[in-house]
Structure formats: structure tokens, C-alpha cells
Write a structure and sequence with these properties.
The chain is mainly alpha-helical. It is built from 15 helices and no strands. Helix 1 runs parallel beside helix 4.
Length: about 425
């Protein structure tokens, strides 16, 4: 029995680590997607953002964020308390003790899996504020977001806080990760303003094409692959038949939701533009993934496909409305993909999970969005007052690569 328990512990720990590695690979996906969707003169800066935010997320979550989100003893269901650094890992005796409280995977593997989710949420912000934000101001925001803002709302559900007690369901983070990132991005974009030339004198929206659509497409496929770790790893276990079957179902539903999202966005772009818009199809794939993330286990494969398809339709409409009606400049469509579709995904849980309550889901949506948006708006405002958040008009014209990084991504192509 002892050997069985140790083998099960090793298998679940290994699965956690490999799932986390897949989610880390999503950082490359975000970097490539965003680099492809911005203009060539801003490519180096957007890559520096993605590398820097990942490093900041890892360190700040280790220092304080993880212990806020998963406290040993919480002060209350609203406030977890604060402690610092990671504790010791499990020993053999605790593993073979048996019972419901016996650990079945390494605590360090749990940290590794959770920290890459924090970086994912911060990556959502990166694309929305692209091409006009100061790099160091972005990093200053990332420090507080990954150490405090994200972990607090994560504790309310995944750490056993009041949203969990209420019955709010979010399997892998349509709200806790994706909508939270979008709320932070929206707050930043509101204070930052649109890129120069994005809107005409009469308010008309002008397209600003990205420099490298092959790179953006590669980034989308990398994200699609990494999402199997994102959703599949959130099952937290694979060492018995039922759990292995559940993981397989999650993989299939994740795959098909993304496929449905592509088709939904393709159909809608054909209706709206008369063309097969590649950027909309890429965002459709991501929208399908975001939509299924809140509940990838209970839907049938067909239901998952339709949830993804609906996400693909919604994201096209959301991008157009946010851009043309609200005049919010989001170069990569991050607020629509992760925010609007994240909300849809949380509501869609009620379609297939009999344990879900619409009231609980709406409450969770309102609480997470309000917390992240308000705290982020305050933080962005402080950073703006202290060090500024926007590069100068001249720097924006020349490109953030030179002003923020002192180098260009494609120097041989400069005229």
C-alpha cells in the first residue's frame, strides 16, 4: 500500500509539473501573438514586456502572492492574511498517512502550476496596452498585480474563500485568470488612451495592421497547445481510472471548443466583412478556449464545440463594439477575448453543470471584475501620477523599440 501511495504521489506530481510546463509555454504564445499584432517598430518592446512580466510574476508570487491565495490558516473568507515565502515540501510520512488530508502531490509542484497562471493573467494586460505604454510603468503595475490584486480574488474561489462558499464555479479560470486580466487591462487602457491616429477627427476607427501575421498565427497555435495544460492540469489528479478519463474528456473539450471558436469567428467575419479575417479567426480560437475554461469537464464534445462557436461569434461582435462604439483601443482584442468571452464562459457553466447557479455565477463575475478593475484603476492612476504611463508622441511615432529598449526587432528592414 505504501508503494502504491508513493507511486500515485509521484505520478500526480509529475502530471502537475508537465501541465505547468505547458502553461509556461503559453508565455511564448502570448509573446508571439502580440509581436505579430503590433507594428514592427514596437516588436522588441512587446517582447521585453512578456519576458519581464513572466519573471516578475514568478518572483512576486513566490514572495507573497501564493501564500495570500492559498493560506494555511485564513483570517476570514474575505481576507486570507499575509505570509511570505514558500514553506517546506511534503515528507514520506505525511504522504503515506492516508485519509482525506494526506497530500497526493508535491506542494512545490502546486506552486509551479499556480504561478504560471498568474503570468497568464498579466499577459492579457500586455497586449491591450501595447504600442504606447512606458515599459517600466508596466512592470511597476505587474509587481502589485501579481503579488496582491490577482491572489486576493483567486483566494476567494480557489483558496476556499467566500465565492467558493457561495457556490461560484470556475474550473480553470475564465474569470479568475482571464476576466481578471481583462479588467486590469481595461482600467489601464482607459487612463492610457488610444494610439495616435487610431481614431479620426469624427471618431471613425482606423485599422492599424500588425506587422507579422505568420508570427501571430504561430502564437495562437502555441496558446492552443498550452491550453491543454491549463485546463487538463486543473483536474489536479490523473492517477486513477476516473481521473484519467476526466483529463481525457477535458483535453477533447478544450480542443473542440477552440475549433468551434475558429468557425464561429470565420462565419461572423464573413457576414460582417465579406472576407475570412485571419485576425478574427485567431481571436476566435482563443475565445473558444476562454469560453470552455470555466467548465471543460461536464459538457459533451458537441456541447463544447457549440460553447466555443458561441465564443467565436461573441468575440467578433465584442471587438467591433469596443472599438467602434466605445472607442477603446485594444491592439490585440484582449479585453474582448478574455473579458467579454470570459464572462460568457462563466455563465455557460450553467448550461452543462447541474451544480451551477446563475446567481452564484453572476455574483462571482461582479465581485472579481469590480475588485480587479477598481484596484487596478487606482494603481494605474498612482503610477501615472508618480512616473507617467505613456511614452511621448514623438517616441510613439518613432516606435517604442528605440525609446524603451534601444534596439529594433527588424533593423535590416529599416528604410
Amino acid at each position: 500500500m505504501e508503494q502504491v501511495l508513493q507511486l500515485s504521489y509521484a505520478l500526480d506530481t509529475f502530471y502537475f509539473l508537465m501541465s505547468g510546463a505547458l502553461v509556461m509555454w503559453m508565455a511564448a504564445g502570448f509573446a508571439m501573438l502580440e509581436a505579430g499584432m503590433v507594428r514592427a517598430k514596437n516588436t522588441t518592446e512587446i517582447l521585453a514586456k512578456n519576458v519581464g512580466l513572466f519573471a516578475i510574476a514568478c518572483i512576486m508570487y513566490m514572495l507573497v502572492g501564493y501564500n495570500i491565495m492559498y493560506p494555511g490558516e485564513a483570517v476570514s473568507s474575505f481576507f486570507p492574511g499575509i505570509s511570505f515565502l514558500l514553506g517546506a515540501d511534503n515528507d514520506v510520512a505525511s504522504v503515506i498517512a492516508g485519509g482525506d488530508d494526506a497530500p497526493y502531490y508535491s506542494g512545490m509542484s502546486d506552486f509551479f502550476f499556480q504561478v504560471v497562471f498568474v503570468a497568464t493573467a498579466m499577459s492579457v494586460v500586455s497586449g491591450a496596452v501595447a504600442e504606447r505604454m512606458k515599459l517600466m510603468s508596466f512592470f511597476a503595475f505587474a509587481i502589485v498585480f501579481t503579488a496582491f490584486i490577482y491572489p486576493m480574488q483567486g483566494y476567494w474561489k480557489w483558496g476556499g474563500g467566500f465565492l467558493d462558499e457561495l457556490g461560484f464555479l470556475d474550473f480553470a479560470g475564465s474569470g479568475i485568470v482571464h476576466m481578471a486580466g481583462a479588467a486590469a487591462a481595461l482600467a489601464g487602457v482607459i487612463l492610457l488612451g488610444a494610439r495616435k491616429g487610431k481614431y479620426g477627427p469624427n471618431g471613425e476607427s482606423r485599422a492599424i495592421p500588425g506587422a507579422n501575421l505568420p508570427l501571430a498565427t504561430l502564437g495562437t497555435f502555441i496558446l492552443w497547445l498550452g491550453w491543454f495544460g491549463f485546463n487538463g492540469g486543473s483536474e489536479l489528479k490523473i492517477s486513477n481510472v476516473d481521473e484519467a478519463n476526466a483529463v481525457a474528456a477535458i483535453f477533447v473539450n478544450t480542443l473542440l471548443a477552440a475549433a468551434g471558436g475558429v468557425i464561429g469567428a470565420l462565419i461572423m467575419s464573413k457576414i460582417k466583412f465579406g472576407k475570412a479575417d485571419l485576425t478574427m479567426m485567431l481571436n476566435g480560437a482563443l475565445a473558444g478556449l476562454v469560453a470552455i475554461t470555466a467548465e471543460p469537464l461536464t459538457p459533451s464534445p458537441l456541447a463544447a464545440t457549440f460553447i466555443g462557436l458561441a465564443g467565436g461569434v461573441i468575440v467578433v461582435l465584442a471587438i467591433l463594439i469596443i472599438d467602434k462604439t466605445f472607442k477603446i483601443d485594444d491592439p490585440v482584442g484582449a479585453i474582448s477575448v478574455h473579458g467579454v468571452v470570459g464572462i460568457f464562459g462563466l455563465i455557460a457553466v450553467t448550461f452543462t453543470n447541474s451544480d451551477a447557479s446563475l446567481i452564484a455565477q453572476l455574483t462571482g463575475i461582479a465581485v472579481i471584475f469590480a475588485w480587479v478593475f477598481v484596484t487596478s484603476l487606482i494603481l494605474w492612476a498612482i503610477i501615472k501620477a508618480v512616473m507617467g504611463i505613456r511614452i511621448t508622441e514623438e517616441q510613439e511615432y518613432e516606435g517604442a523599440d528605440q525609446s524603451e529598449c534601444g534596439m529594433e526587432a527588424y533593423p535590416e528592414f529599416k528604410k
